[in-house]
Specification:
single chain; alpha/beta; 6-stranded mixed β-sheet; two-stranded antiparallel ribbon; 13 helices; 8 strands; 52% helix
Amino acid sequence: MSSSHRRTHDQHYKTLLRHFLRELLEMTHPALVPHLRFDQCRFLDKETYTDLIGGSGYRMDLVCEIATRDGQVRLLVIQIEIEERTRKPLKISLGQRLANYFMTLSLRHQKPVLPILVTFAPSAGGLTTDVFEASVLGESVFTLRYRRLGVRGMEAARFLRGNNPLAFALAIRMKRGKLSKAELQLACERKIVHADLNESQQLLLLDSVKNYADLTPAQKREYDEKLEQKKNREVKEKTMTWLEREYRKGEKKGEKKGEKKGEKKGLLISIGEIWSNRFGPMPDEVSQNLQAVPESGLLQQVISILLRARSEAEARTQITTLCTTS
């Protein structure tokens, strides 16, 4: 995986897990959830240090503080590490790295720390409790137990029978059993559109499913055919309604700003919002290319590219090609 793909993947799941932290903990620590005050959750700066003066830095994916209901432990720091693949042997093992993070957070915040590893590595199966033990001259001096959520080792069918919205999105990367990839994507999307969620939550989850379905052209044709079935009507309507609304909303914004070409300005605003929702801040190079596009029709093609691209790198490549050859 390239560094740009890695950053895109990390950013996507950081956003997803920030919005669905409770649902993540319902998967990893269900007994703990009733004791936490999610209304008092605060995400911290992801960079911390090995000492209070300077030292070498560690960058952790998500660190948040949550108050507990009993008041005995006022704040709890939850650490989440996202792993996409099985890494090559490192000088420092994954367990050692998590232990380093654990000790760094404990020393800095002087609060209980709960490490969680979310992994999409093929070799990581299901939900397990892993143990890291540090020994000196054969004597055990430190032991760390942490929960590991191995998404790709889980059965999608099990979670699609449940009521956890985060699991509906993660299921696209689980074992699909007898379902085809197109059938699994639609099954995930149906659960999401029927879940008790607000619109932004639904769109975030639907985007995650589309981003990681990774359908081949033949599978995409199967998906499009099955999308016309009666049971998938709401999935189709949700996608089409969102696209139309984003376009109209951007167009109106452009008109309000007094632009002579309100349609083009509106499209640019819509593109910026869709890019931001999917990938984070838009790179200057992409923004400059889009500003130079003379026709609104090409910008409509850009929206289609953004909705279908599997990664930021793919979107950038296709948009650059469209802008430079038109």
